[in-house]
Amino acid sequence: MLNCFSELPDLENPFKAEDIFVDEDWEIFENYKFDEMNLSAGNIQWFDANKDIAKVDPIAYDVSPPTDSPDVFSGVGWVTNKKFARQLHEFANDCLPDGFIKEMWSTPTGQRLFPVTVLAWGRQNSDWHMEGCRYDWQKNTYLNNIRYSTVCNFKILGQDASSRIEYVEPSVRMIKVLEKLTDEFVNYKGKEDYTLMLQEISASISTGTIDEKIRAMFVDPTEELSAEEERERNIKILEYQQKLKGKDLNYKELVDDIEHDRGLVSKPVVFKPRAVEKGLMVSGPNDVISPNGEKYWYDEFTPICTKQGYANPFIMNLQQWHKVYVGDDNSPRVTLRFMADRRIPFSHWEEMVDNGTFLK
Questions:
Q1: What is the DSSP string of 290-308?
Q2: How far apart are CA 341 and CA 241, in angstroms?
Q3: How confident is residue 64, by pLDDT bands cut at 50, 70 and 90?
Q4: Domain spans of the chain?
Q5: What is this structure's pTM?
Q6: Rounded Cα gap, residues 97 and 142, in angstroms
Q7: Three-class SS of residue 335?
Q8: What is the pLDDT, as a whole number, of residue 256?
Q9: Which residues contact 307 (CB under 8 A, 6 or more apart)?
Q10: Residue 254: its pLDDT value, please?
């Protein structure tokens, strides 16, 4: 609809929360405590957006971070369980159009992931945001290699009737500010290597999740290995587990070792938390308006349409500005998202839905 979303009422949703989540996941949703949760107990490796905002990016609050820790979880998860990843792969092959998903993801440490994310909004609405690259001044930067234009969404948790997504068009003035902020962000010269990720893995020793995290670095969920290849890989995993558990750990040396063993070329990450003006922010994953900035920028929006309800699977255009409303009872909204090939625009898939050729 209007280059924003297309409902897929004839596509069955086979994904159930009780089949995906383990006790620790439910604990995250129902009894969240900031910086105290096990984020990688089951099928999903969670990234806590509250931790990102509070510790990395206090500028999101315009003046200073809040003094109280957030009491609801919001974040994104990646599927790290091999069996579940295969199920997702089989579903995409059986139901979604050829070419919707073309390739696996690769992390800086060589881990291979099927391109599905699990997006969780806590008992609160999202900020206004846009996740794609819509304009030439975005597409001509590295942002075009890390952002996506289309997702196919499946409800895992949330309200069917009262939950909604509103789509809006930004003003010319706001677009000009975004162009300036994007230039500031992409031309920032600071760099950060992979040590932060390894430090977080090392810190997870106390939670008992380190073995699974290290194993995930070396396991392709779709790869079949011979017995000899499996044995060699398991030996390498054990070596890194012992290194990370060592008392005198040199993270830089470990990064070099991993890059050598995985056959990777070192690619330092260009890093800036955000470029911001009056609460309008540009980052790697998205452009977003902070809660305090909404009062300044909201009048720059023209409404396009509203997607009411959450019962059906649907495809969505991430290049449109939108805001997710979790529903009247403020329960968590959790969505499983198949990330379409970023080189194909939403309009292509929308046309297939309109013509009745999207589903196999």
A1: -HHHHHHHGGGEEEEEEEE
A2: 34
A3: very low
A4: 5-188+272-355, 195-262
A5: 0.75
A6: 27
A7: strand
A8: 57
A9: 1, 4, 5, 164, 165, 166, 167, 314
A10: 54
